[in-house]
Design brief:
362 residues; mainly alpha; 2 domains; two-stranded antiparallel ribbon; 70% helix
Length: 362
């Protein structure tokens, strides 16, 4: 994910004839980040808020977070030109500029932020699930707090990463809203995926579990819709009449409208699940929420790269969609395999039987 530089700054990809900062596979990485971080946050909040429903879902949420988090962590390493040297990212991370090595390695910074969550997830799996009746202890709350904080960093990290690589985001002052939108999308997506997993495991919908998960999607979806409308309003207020506004809106509007439509559909489906939960509506809710977050990630990671640095023209970009689809399918299959191993040989059942009990542990 590197690009050439001037003596005093960066040359962005749309200033040259070939190359992109982010290829489509980054969108799949971001989806996995959203699911993993959202699930981790729900686990942490379940302990910190003493929520019996979320505590019952701890095994399921931990399996989802571990499966998606592990695949994402391995993904960027596979993208390196020399994967055999990936270990040096952790041994000698380039996260502090020096005279010999100016700038910062974004992938090293990414690795430095991502791997702690995997360690905390494994600790949480052992302490909160494999050990029984530990929910009210101080160590359990410490683990839950660490899980929540690192998950929060994870869920908002992609927005900060995009600001460093796509200059148009900073220019249009979208910084205050994107991390918040990313957070609510992550929690909503994790909740909908957890609901789909419950439907698959139980071949039905348990109202006591479906209602809180669908409520989270409703709250997240409504928050996202309000924030996005406010963001578009700010753009029009501050930039109406700007010669670059039309170019920005050409690249932004189409997918943004699709994202808003999908988020509204997700909220409506979540309301139906909350009131009259069914297998069909729960499945559609998960798929629609996934498409909502996918469209939004694609909008900011891929579509806006077509805006030239002068912000006065759109530069056509060529994407290998077939390769992206194959890479994404491979990542999904690996995540499903990890989930299968955890479910069959470690946990055995996705939900605990009682309030903080250890039922269902293998």
């Amino acid at each position: 994910m590197s690009y050439p530089s001037y003596p005093h700054g960066y040359m962005y990809p749309n200033e040259v004839a070939v190359g992109l900062t982010w290829l489509p596979v980054i969108v799949t990485y971001m989806l996995f980040i959203s699911i993993a971080s959202g699930s981790a946050i729900l686990v942490g909040l379940g302990v910190l808020l003493n929520s019996g429903i979320l505590r019952r879902l701890t095994p399921l949420l931990l399996m989802i977070s571990l499966a998606t988090g592990l695949v994402f962590l391995l993904g960027p390493l596979a993208d390196l030109r020399r994967p055999e040297r990936a270990v040096y990212i952790f041994l000698y991370p380039h996260v502090i500029p020096s005279e010999a090595y100016p700038g910062v390695s974004l992938i090293a910074l990414m690795a430095g932020l991502m791997w702690p969550l995997l360690v905390i997830l494994l600790v949480a799996l052992w302490y909160l699930v494999l050990r029984r009746n530990m929910w009210g202890s101080i160590p359990a709350r410490v683990v839950a707090l660490a899980l929540t904080l690192v998950g929060l960093v994870w869920s908002t990290y992609f927005a900060l990463l995009l600001f460093t690589t796509i200059p148009v985001l900073s220019t249009y002052n979208l910084a205050p809203l994107l991390p918040i939108e990313s957070f609510v999308e992550s929690v909503a997506l994790a909740s909908s995926i957890a609901l789909l997993a419950l439907v698959i495991h139980h071949r039905g919908v348990e109202a006591s579990l479906a209602r809180p998960l669908s409520f989270i999607v409703i709250a997240g979806g409504l928050t996202f819709i309000v924030l996005r409308f406010f963001g578009v309003f700010r753009l029009h207020v501050y930039l109406t009449g700007s010669p670059s506004m039309q170019i920005f809106m050409e690249a932004f509007s189409g997918l943004n409208i699709l994202t808003l439509i999908l988020s509204v559909i997700s909220v409506l489906l979540a309301i139906h699940v909350y009131l009259r939960g069914s297998v069909i509506s729960s499945t559609l809710l998960a798929l629609t929420t996934l498409l909502w977050v996918l469209a939004d990630r694609w909008l900011f990671a891929i579509s806006l790269q077509s805006i030239s640095k002068t912000m006065l023209a759109l530069v056509p970009i060529s994407l290998d969609i077939a390769l992206w689809a194959l890479e994404s399918i491979a990542m999904v299959l690996i995540a499903l395999f990890v989930y299968y191993v955890l479910y069959n040989w470690v946990i055995r059942t996705p939900t605990l039987k009682g309030e903080g009990g250890g039922g269902g542990i293998g």
